[in-house]
Amino acid sequence: MTLNTAPTATAVRQVPQVTNPKRRKGKSAYPYWFYLPAAVIYTALFLVPTVVSFFFSLTRWNLNEFTFIGLDNFVQFFQEPALIKGLTNTFIYGIVTSVLKVVLGMLLAVLLTSQIIARGYLRSVMFFPVLLSSIGVGIVFTALMDPRNGMINEGLAAIGIQGPAWLTDPAWALLSVALVDVWKGVGLATVIYIAGIVSIPQEYFEAAKMDGASSFKSFFNITLPLARPATATVIILSLIGGLRSFDLIWAMTKGGPGFTSDVIASVIYKQYQAGFYGLSTAGNVVLFLIVTAIVLPLSMFLNRKEVEQ
Amino acid sequence: MAASSKQRWAALAGGVTVLALALTGCSGGSNTANGDEKTITWLVDNAENTVAAAEKVAEEFTAANPGIKVEVETRPQGGDGDNIVKTRLSTGDMADVFNYNTGSLLQQINPEQNLQPITNEPYLSNITESFKPVVTSGSEVYGVPFSTGMAGAVLYNKKVYEKLGLSVPKTWDEFMDNSRKIKNAGIAPIIQSYQTTWTSQLFVLGDFANVVTEDPNFPADYTANKAKFATNAAAVKGFEHLEEAGKAGLFNEDFASTTYQQAQDMLINGEGAQYPILSFALNNIKVTYPDKLNDLGLFPLPGDDASKNKLTVWMPGGTYIPKSSKNMEEAKKLQAFIASKAGCDAQTAAVGAAGPYLVKDCELPSDVPDAVKDMLPYFEDEAKNSPALEFLSPVKGPALEQITVEVGSGIRSAKDGAALYDEDVKKQAKQLNLPGWN
Fold first, then answer.
1. Which residues of chain A have pLDDT under 70?
2. Strand residues in B186-237 grouped as ranges (E)
């Protein structure tokens, strides 16, 4: 199957490559200086800092001067004791949040595209947490998750369950933050899935019904495969989000207790805060490379599958 | 055709670069000076006590120097505040006068380059000799003390001690004995507040006077990369004590989620008996529990030898003038005022005194809290105190508070924690380009 279709996929891609040079020679409908405002902002706020940060990651600098030290920062960064922990935590966090967002987002989307009461209202309610500020959410949940006086544990105590110390137990801290991240982010995944499911032609479902397929069957054989572009988008967005997650973790645990919920971004931030600018620049370069190395192949893989269907 | 297109792209690229440079550049602010009245700015951290004291000092200063108004600006505390200070200094945008840490943290803002030396100013003679080293870099002095000296020690509830018939411990063993007795009485013996992470460091930082007693060369060796916390028998004890107390179950039950403020509430209400903390907590307690302030006493973190019982003291922060100040004369007048009896009195009137001043002739009011009175004998006799390590060595790692949280919570052993901290300080030493570390 894959062998048969793979060449088609490349063939499809080659076509625009052939036509591209032709199009480039043709005159654009707009003068070049129309690009200027966007180019200036993009260059000043993105290109220049990116290139400059690659240079400064090779130096030890403060705000006044710098010394070129080659790859020392990278050596130091990889020796960082909190790094391994941060790296593992980053992956755990990224995977836990994106898996949960995919599963819950899909289920909620199926629910919210079916004929239920107050569908429009429920859709808005679902999306509402996405609009909140991460810091605000973090502070509210820190209060809710307080082991003694927090509403969550008091609620659990009322039904006879002794809740864990969500944010201060080393075994729970990272997971608790990940759960809050899912609560906050699942709305976006749901909306993407709703769009994906709504765009599936109704005829498929009708035909399946005529053939006597159960709702389970039509979900697994129609909805799930045809919503694959939506799945790809959700996975990529939440994985990128998870890998560079910082704000929620910082607001809720600051990487603590100790280093137990540190992720790469919080390790880097703490280095920056301590004034080790060269070291933290090197860390950011590493983070940039890691995210690119994971997301680029993943996005290529998911998009290739998309062509296959 | 192709050539003209290339030119156009070149022009576009050029334009983008110029605009990008313009966008990334910054513009400096300017100070207002109109006629005979001058206004100078003074940047302080936003702690309630600091702002109240600074505003009172500013008011008294204007009364004594008519024609000079002082506008007090605030910045956040902690790391964010440090970044603001560093950024404003390097962009030449600093207030005319500003408060900042003394000791190792002062080295991080490049005093030689950024600050106005005041070594030859007459008002420097008002300052206690012991304070000068912590505001000195190279051969120049840069700052005057703002606020009072403090101690890193144990605040204890005297009523609990009286009720259980305990006496102030002079050695670590006595301290542990007391703590066990307190635990048996159903009171939390040692309060820890790991939700506010910096408070976890006191077992290590406050033990430093005991380290110097056993090994007087430790600060110098430590700066020269010759002594380490993990391998120095005296230095590792702070970590070990923390581990021991945590393992013995002597902390309050919810130490992991307790905040600095809650810890003070527990101490003053007698739910907890002893709290190793910086004595500036007294300032805060004075505001929240003015009538119960004298229920508290203070003793140094005990070491092994009762006869060498010593207090670890913290120098107050300093008030500095940046080289970029356009009102140098007026700024120096304000510094001189802060380093005078009138300056101390203004601070005492605003917030009281949580320790001795480091300005000569300054007197403490007769109604100082009992815990401060407990501290004074140690301050008065030089043999009975030692400055904390951060005033004797520029080497200070940023992760100590996370490490001590882990050691106290039993996540990491004392030995591992000390070794990890030794790793952590390497980064600071390298950033400062200290000899012997690269």
1. 1-27, 63, 305-309
2. 188-190
B423 in A contact zone (CB under 8 Å): yes
Give chain B's largest Cα–Cα span.
99
Q: Which of A64, A66, A176 to mutate to test the interface with B (most CBs of B within 10 A)?
A: A64
Structure tokens at B435: 């000899």
| ipTM of the complex as predicted | 0.73
Q: How far apart are CA A238 and CA A184, in angstroms?
A: 12
Domain covering A73-308 in this structure, CATH number = 1.10.3720.10
Contact yes or no for A273 and B398 at CB 8 A: yes
Cα first-last separation, chain B: 57
- Two tokens, residue B174: 């006595």
Q: Which residues have a Cβ under 8 Å from the Cβ of B165 and sit 6 or more positions away?
A: none
pTM of the full predicted structure? 0.78
C-alpha count within 13 angstroms, C-beta hemisphere, residue B209: 26
Interface contact flag, B398 A147, Cβ < 8 Å: no
Q: What's the pLDDT at A13? A: 44
Residue-level pLDDT at A33: 85
**Which tokens hold the place of A188?**
């976006």
Contact of B172 with B333, CB cutoff 8 Å: no
- Count residue pairs from A and B with Cβ separation < 8 A: 115
**Residues on chain A touching B17 (C-beta within 8 angstroms):** 43
pLDDT, tens digit (0-9, with 9 covering 90-100), for A174-221: 999 999 999 999 999 999 999 999 999 999 999 999 999 888 898 999
**Beta carbons of B12 and A258 less than 8 Å apart:** no
Domains annotated for chain B, with CATH where assigned, are 34-148+316-365 (3.40.190.10), 150-314+373-431 (3.40.190.10)
Give the tokens for residue A274: 């301590």
Q: What is the pLDDT of residue B341?
A: 93
Name every chain B residue with its beta carbon within 8 A of the beta carbon of A257: 194, 256, 405-406, 409, 411
pLDDT value of position A306: 54
- The residue of chain A with its CA nearest to that of B25 is A44
Give the residue on B whose Cα is nearest the Cα of A39: B16
